[in-house]
Design the sequence.
């Protein structure tokens, strides 16, 4: 009788262990994101979210452990999900990558950066060394929900037998249901010996959600009223990639509205003035703010037909804040573009 009991106990233990190691169902507490449809035979193995955080995404090849030459930084609600695909159909990372990219494109999103193969993503460097929030084990350990902590946190790690085509990565941006989203998907074929991980594909999904700028609240008439009464209009929704003068996609609608106002007042002349927060040295911020003002000027003239002699670009860095720089809310208010009547 003792022998039979021992066998039953061992079998129960084995079955419990196997269930712990399986991919499905979703880990308890996880919420599937409306932007991402689950791939065939996939479930959420790791999940966490924060109400407000800052995330930096590489948008060019990573060339050191410090990151990529081109990056974007977004702030907002952040959701991190790792999906595990039970790969009985022998899918490839490229197949998974292209399916997700196509689905997002059909949803109106733009793929702003895409790379297939570790050599194209990060060369001899590991993506998690430069961007730890993209599934570095130390970060996953702190996530709210995972199956179980000692196991699936290794879902995105590399094994000696991994090959170049085991990795894929892309960044997308777009709008849905009144919100702006920036998201990155890091796709990895796991070749470790762990049951449940071995030969399955895992998709690290990082999503930043922002409230959409209400462009309808800015009109040529509202700009004219503001300049008539105050001599300037302040634009907090003309935005740039972090540390650069590259305009974000959502900024063009605002600039187009501004161009309508300017072309409706052809005899008036204006300054386009860039402002920054106080993060960084004054000379650097003055240069950056001028480059940003020039980017707006160039878009107004080359894309929307405003006359070049009607506007001039200037940058004042952090010299004219609207709010205190010691809080993130204050710094966000200070990063702006103004149109000032000459």
Sequence:
């Amino acid at each position: 009788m003792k022998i039979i009991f021992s066998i039953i106990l061992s079998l129960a233990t084995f079955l419990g262990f196997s269930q712990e190691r399986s991919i499905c169902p979703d880990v308890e507490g996880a919420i599937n994101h409306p932007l991402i449809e689950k791939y065939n035979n996939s479930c959420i193995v790791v999940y966490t979210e924060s109400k407000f955080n800052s995330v930096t995404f590489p948008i060019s090849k990573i060339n050191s452990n410090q990151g990529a030459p081109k990056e974007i930084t977004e702030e907002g609600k952040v959701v991190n999900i790792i999906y595990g695909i039970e790969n009985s159909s022998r899918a490839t990372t490229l197949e998974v990558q292209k399916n997700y990219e196509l689905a997002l494109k059909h949803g109106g999103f733009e793929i702003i950066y895409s790379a297939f193969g570790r050599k194209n993503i990060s060369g001899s460097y590991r993506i998690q060394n430069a961007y730890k929030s993209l599934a570095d084990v130390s970060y996953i350990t702190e996530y709210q929900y995972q199956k179980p902590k000692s196991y699936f946190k290794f879902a995105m790690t590399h094994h000696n037998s991994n090959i170049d085509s085991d990795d894929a990565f892309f960044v997308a941006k777009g709008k849905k249901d009144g919100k702006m989203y920036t998201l990155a998907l890091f796709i990895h074929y796991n070749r470790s010996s762990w049951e449940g991980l071995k030969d399955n594909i895992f998709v690290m999904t990082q999503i930043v959600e922002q409230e959409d700028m209400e462009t309808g609240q800015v009109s040529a008439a509202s700009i004219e009223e503001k300049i008539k009464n105050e001599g300037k209009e302040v634009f907090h929704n003309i935005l740039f990639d972090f540390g650069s003068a590259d305009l974000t996609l959502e900024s063009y609608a605002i600039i187009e509205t501004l161009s309508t106002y300017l072309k409706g007042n052809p005899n008036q002349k204006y300054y386009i003035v860039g402002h920054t927060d106080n993060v960084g040295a004054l000379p650097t911020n003055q240069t950056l703010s001028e480059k940003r003002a020039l980017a707006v000027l160039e878009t107004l003239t080359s894309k929307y037909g405003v006359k070049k002699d009607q506007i001039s670009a200037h940058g004042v860095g952090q010299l004219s804040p609207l709010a205190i720089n010691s809080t993130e809310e204050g710094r966000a208010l200070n990063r702006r573009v103004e149109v000032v009547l000459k």
About this structure: Confidence is low (pLDDT under 50) at residues 1-20. The radius of gyration is 25 Å. The chain has two domains: 23-211, 215-341. Residues 282-303 form the longest helix (22 residues).
